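Researcher: We plan to redesign the surface later, but first we want a full-length starting point. Tokens attached.
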């Protein structure tokens, strides 16, 4: 007999979600994590100075607050509290103003000048529809008949518009820059077929649930999931790197929150050679160069709207965002870089002592980039926030190699655990009807290298657990964990 019903490798959001789902079915579950704390990409640490609590990876969570599985698990019961910035996201522009992604479509449109009407046309039918759309968007598109086919069709007709066509629909430049910044979260060129869909997902989430920050930091999400696992009798083993399945206790099912490369190595001969070769050939995307700052005061943005925003995209114009992303995907360091920044202390003063602030920023760079982008990043911020360097008390710099050392899933500094270019955002780790399963009926992949891909939402873990429960234990869970 198996020692435990289910073993989960990796205590990131997806691994913890898979463990929670399995444990709630009355199964014995044990989670193994290589680091000294749970969380993976959802951790919070003092990286700079005492009392300044930073998120080493994820910080702002438009997908987490609207995640169907997180809602079904009721993370709030285990201490998770969402804080909503007054402005979800701002994109400062060269004229000293900013385009704004607000909670309402009308407020967003008002910041876009002559493009406001086109934005209402694009987003009006989708606003407030996140609850219907999320179950269909956050799963493999071919997994089952859509829960809400008409809503999905409305989204799909807009998502099918190529970025080049949106460039012609929006003529004033403000909306183009705003949408380009959201598309860039996919870490793919703006010309990627899935680019428009990514921007619409983030905009729809903002108009429905905002772009919130967890009180106390992203660790709160992982801690809440851990609370569910242990409440149901599950075990979590820290500081335990898994090198091969043979080193683990016997189990009826193994769910791995790891990269495809690591899956091939850990599972070894339990997988056919041809399947391992496909995993070894999995393509990773660009890396990230990240800086966490401890500040004496808030970032002195020229555009006052940015002072109230939880997230600020620093990319000036559509052309500059496009140029930066194209450079990265051609293997070049962008100049100037496109920056995604977060300001947790806008809504959570507990993240820094004595009126200080934490500030989080990263730029896309070629995978494995070994240089120092600090000067270029700070020059870019100074263009939109003159005097920024004067408020910096301390900084913690993390390059691609550092990211991979802290989290083995971030191969070459790729925090998305896989390229999103082409159709790789949906066909990951490669095109299969059930991307979570492997030729070994007891081994499953549950990381963000499976659909729906990167982001803290737990849905990769949920879908992998759902398939494993049906195939190994005869338990059928719904595709949508909220509505059933």
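Model: Full-length starting sequence:
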């Amino acid at each position: 007999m198996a020692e435990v019903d289910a073993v989960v490798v990796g205590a990131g959001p997806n691994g913890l979600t898979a463990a929670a789902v399995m444990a709630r079915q009355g199964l014995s579950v044990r989670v193994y994590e290589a680091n000294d704390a749970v969380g993976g990409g959802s951790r919070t640490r003092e990286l700079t100075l005492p009392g300044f609590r930073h998120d080493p990876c994820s910080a702002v969570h438009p997908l987490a607050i609207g995640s169907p599985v997180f809602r079904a698990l009721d993370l709030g019961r285990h201490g998770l509290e969402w804080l909503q910035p007054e402005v979800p996201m701002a994109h400062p522009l060269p004229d000293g103003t900013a385009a704004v992604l607000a909670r309402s479509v009308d407020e967003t449109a008002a910041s876009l000048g002559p493009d406001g009407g086109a934005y209402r046309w694009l987003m009006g039918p989708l606003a407030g529809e996140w609850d219907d759309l999320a179950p269909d968007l956050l799963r493999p598109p071919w997994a089952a008949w859509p829960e809400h086919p008409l809503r999905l069709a409305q989204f799909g007709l807009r998502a099918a518009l190529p970025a080049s066509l949106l460039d012609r629909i929006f003529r004033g430049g403000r909306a183009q820059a705003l949408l380009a910044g959201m598309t860039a979260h996919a870490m793919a060129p703006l010309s990627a077929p899935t680019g428009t869909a990514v921007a619409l997902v983030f905009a729809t989430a903002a108009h429905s649930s905002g772009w919130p920050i967890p009180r106390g930091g992203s660790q709160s999400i992982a801690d809440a999931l851990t609370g569910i696992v242990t409440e149901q009798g599950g075990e979590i083993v820290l500081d335990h790197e898994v090198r091969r399945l043979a080193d683990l206790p016997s189990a009826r099912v193994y769910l791995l929150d790891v990269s495809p490369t690591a899956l091939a190595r850990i599972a070894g001969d339990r997988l056919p050679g041809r399947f391992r070769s496909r995993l070894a050939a999995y393509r990773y995307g660009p890396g990230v160069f990240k800086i966490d700052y401890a500040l004496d005061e808030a970032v002195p943005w020229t555009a006052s709207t940015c002072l109230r925003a939880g997230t600020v995209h620093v990319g000036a114009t559509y052309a500059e965002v496009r140029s930066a992303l194209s450079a990265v995907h051609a293997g070049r360091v962008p100049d100037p870089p496109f920056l995604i920044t977060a300001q947790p202390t806008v809504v959570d003063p507990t993240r820094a002592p004595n009126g200080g602030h934490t500030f989080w920023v990263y730029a896309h760079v070629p995978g494995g980039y070994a240089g120092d982008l600090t000067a270029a990043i700070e020059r870019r911020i100074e263009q939109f926030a003159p005097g920024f360097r004067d408020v910096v008390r301390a900084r913690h710099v993390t390059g691609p190699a550092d990211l991979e050392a802290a989290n083995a899933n971030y191969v070459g500094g790729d925090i998305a655990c896989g390229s999103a270019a082409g159709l790789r955002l949906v066909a990951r780790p490669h095109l299969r009807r059930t991307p979570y399963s492997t030729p070994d009926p007891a081994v499953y992949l549950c990381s963000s290298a499976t659909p729906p891909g990167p982001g803290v939402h737990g849905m990769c873990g949920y879908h992998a657990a759902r398939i494993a429960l049906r195939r190994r234990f005869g338990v059928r869970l719904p595709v949508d964990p909220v509505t059933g």
